[in-house]
Amino acid sequence: NAPLRGGKGWLYEGGIRVPLIIRGPVVSRPGAVIDHPIISTDFYPTLLSLAGLPLKPSQHVDGVNFRPLLAGKQTLPPRIFYWHYPHYHGSTWAPGSALREDNWKLVVQDHYKTVELYDLAADPGETTDLSRQETATQDRLLKKLRAWQKETNAYIPTERKSTP
User: Edge-to-edge strand order for the sheet containing 96-101?
Assistant: First the structure.
């Protein structure tokens, strides 16, 4: 995953950033590299669009049609990405959540009660935590993350429970 940090099951870029390769007649520039984030929920509305079928917004509430990117438009409307991982992982990852808005990435590890902030444009490997320097940004993003968790009724474990 180098230079990205972390691995599968982690909320750092090495665990959530995955390359996507698309081949087909809708790709306007073969060999082009598009550096615009999309997420798995974007596949459904995009596939509907590519098939010439009407979008079904009630079925893809969180998804965005990324066909314009394939047609050569470099951006989609801005949006916030959320990840929630309320489990313990064999790789030592503990419950946490993350949020990405533009190039800002907030990583919250609930078990350790830590909050980290990264500028992915300057630091895609998440090596420099800016949470102490960018407190206003950290607070703003943390407020959005907690509001999203409340809205979705996300489970947030408070302590590790061992199994008998």
Answer: 80-85, 96-101, 104-109, 114-119
pLDDT digits (tens, 9 = 90+) for 111-123: 888 999 999 999 9
**CA–CA distance, 3 with 68 (Å, rounded to integer):** 29
Q: How buried is 141 (Cβ within 10 angstroms: 0-12 exposed, 13-18 middle, 19+ buried)?
A: buried
- How many other CB atoms sit within 10 Å of the CB of residue 91? 11
Select from 148, 92, 164, 123 the least CA-distant residue to 156. 148
Do the beta carbons of residue 69 and residue 76 sit within 8 Å? yes
Nearest-angstrom CA–CA distance, 68 and 75: 8
Total-model pTM: 0.89
What does the pLDDT look like over 79-116, one tens digit per residue? 999 999 998 877 778 899 999 999 999 999 988 889 99
| Contact present, 116 and 11 (Cβ < 8 Å) | no
Q: What is the H or E stretch that residue 143 is in? A: helix 135-151
| Residue pair 97/85 in contact by the 8 Å Cβ criterion | yes
